[in-house]
Design a protein that fits this description.
The chain has about 525 residues and is an alpha/beta fold. About 30% of the residues lie in helices and about 15% in strands. Helix 3 runs antiparallel to helix 6, helix 3 packs across helix 7 and helix 12 packs across helix 14.
């Protein structure tokens, strides 16, 4: 997030797109409820009528995979009416003219035809967001999990820069991270192309810095593999072994049947986790890690705020600290690691990580600190790009609309999307092991409209077979007004009715994220 969670309360307009906020981020949703109470206008754009749409001043259901068309249409209206912040554009950005040429073509009529949102609603969103003094953008995986995920995010950045809603309080571009330490994992280099704080592995200077700190002659400047590339490597036998830590791809990744076939080809599959997940059941070796309650360390949350984590109980059974397991394996491979504590690791990390340099365990007492925090007397950073954009000038991108990788047809006539329900997280590794949470929603389902249910002769609660070009699953039908006719929604937490058997593994060409949010399916009564 460019801004902080508490700032939502004082925004004048909050534009939520591709985020089921109350379900996936309920604490952030409470801040948005407070903003509404304080007079903020709330805009919600989602193919499904998510719960937070109930408080929206403007709510639209764009067709799946048409976010760029919707956003370009909104920007067209802003420019046509002169609502852009031209001073901000001139002083703080570059390449606006190339972007302008693209959005000039996206009249609200053209955008409406593509995305299914009325011209009146496109114009109303444009006016509400652009004329607000403090406008905040909020998005989640409904924006990113597409073959055009990078385009979607760049389009939101374009919209924020166009209106000058960046670098000031209660504004900005605010992606909501999916779990408590997703931001921290990325910050620490948990990506195949960067060291900590997004220092590129392709940079000779960065590689030399880390090589010196770690006492080796040199580090590779070759990009690592993404998950799709790892699975492809297993299939073509260029990857022989896979070490999976805290992930459950047999439930979470698209085209699960393909995932299983790839994992079966591994000569060695190691899984480190706190439960025996479906992926762990396939492993040659299972290493028992620890839960948050059994470890010391730090988490960095969605607003870039680092906080201490303290061990409440000793590890149960044969479980061990994750860093100790990794350290022992490294030492046995010939590179000796001799860290004595999580804090010792953290202190080494902050010496190598400019945005964390001023953060220490002592300074994390209380409310923690938000990076960038470059020195020990720095207070942390509430919002990014204040005064000046971090890269020097904000870069506009000319983004044209590209349709989803897969389209509906006579054989597969329904648009299909996946997501979460309030009681469960991701593959249910933890929540489905909680009797209380599992009792709330104990089984999977598929949402379909009353119109489609009547046409198919399907009654609420009946078992249906859902099929895509990759496989079929049986689940219960939930007839609801939350989805539009022609569209269906299925939560992906339930391995016994695994939504990701159906989803499309096609991925964004830049960031390689799969198109989990849209594919084509068929629905019929179960035999």
């Amino acid at each position: 997030m460019t801004n902080s969670i508490g700032e939502f309360e004082n925004a004048d307009c909050i534009f939520i797109i591709g985020s089921n906020t109350t379900v996936a981020h309920p604490l952030i949703a409470t801040r948005i409820f407070r903003a509404k109470k304080n007079g903020a206008k709330i805009i919600v754009a989602d193919p499904r009528r998510v719960h937070i749409a109930e408080i929206a001043d403007i709510h639209v259901n764009q067709k799946m995979g048409t976010d760029v068309a919707l956003l370009n249409g909104i920007m067209h209206v802003i420019v046509k009416n002169g609502w852009q912040d031209q001073d901000y554009i001139d002083q703080q950005t570059e390449e606006f003219e190339a972007c302008r040429k693209v959005i000039e073509a996206f009249t609200p009529e053209m955008a409406s035809e593509i995305c299914g949102v009325s011209v009146a609603d496109i114009e109303a969103i444009a006016e509400c967001y652009a004329t607000a003094e403090k406008g905040s953008l909020v998005y989640c995986m409904g924006i990113t999990q597409h073959t055009t995920g990078v385009d979607n995010v760049k389009s939101l950045a374009n919209l924020a820069m166009l209106t000058g809603h960046l670098g000031k309080e209660s504004s900005g571009v605010n992606p909501l991270r999916g779990q408590n330490n997703v931001q921290g994992a990325c910050d620490m280099g948990g990506l195949p192309n960067v060291f900590t704080a997004y220092q590129p592995v392709t940079s000779e200077g960065a590689a030399e810095k880390f090589a010196s700190a770690w006492g080796v002659d040199r580090l590779s400047t070759t990009l690592g593999l993404t998950i799709p590339a790892m699975l492809e490597g297993l299939e073509n036998e260029t990857v022989k072994a896979l070490y999976i830590m805290g992930e459950n791809p047999v439930v979470s990744d698209p085209d699960v049947n393909h995932v299983k076939k790839a994992l079966e080809k591994a000569e060695l599959l190691i899984v480190q986790d706190i439960f025996l997940t479906a992926t762990a059941e396939m492993a040659d070796v299972v290493l028992p890690g620890v839960s948050f309650a059994e470890k010391d360390g730090t988490f960095t949350n969605t607003e870039r705020r680092g906080a201490r984590v303290r061990k409440a109980i000793e590890p149960l059974g044969e479980a061990r600290q994750d860093w100790q397991i990794i350290q022992d394996i490294s030492s046995r491979f010939g590179y000796a690691m001799e860290y004595g504590s999580a804090e010792e690791i953290f202190n080494e990390m902050r010496k190598l990580t400019p945005s964390y340099a001023g953060i220490s365990y002592e300074r994390l007492e209380g409310d923690g600190l938000q990076w960038p925090c470059p020195t020990e007397d720095h207070p942390g950073t509430q919002f990014l790009h204040g005064g000046k954009i971090a890269r020097g000038k904000g870069l506009f991108h000319a983004i044209d609309f590209q349709p989803p990788n897969e389209n509906v047809d006579e054989q597969y006539p329904f648009w299909f999307s996946t997501g979460r329900v309030f009681a469960h997280y991701h593959t249910g590794t933890m929540t489905r092991n909680s009797p209380t949470l599992d009792a709330e929603i104990p089984e999977g389902f598929i949402e379909l409209s009353a119109e489609d249910a009547e046409q198919l002769g399907i009654k609420n609660g009946e078992t249906v077979t859902v099929s895509s070009r990759r496989g079929s699953v049986d689940t219960k039908a939930l007839v609801t007004g939350r989805v539009e006719a022609g569209s269906v929604f299925m939560p992906f937490h339930f391995i016994e009715s695994c939504a990701n058997i159906l989803t499309n593994p096609a991925h964004d060409p830049i960031c390689k994220i799969p198109e989990l949010k849209v594919c084509a399916v068929n629905i019929a009564k179960a035999a």
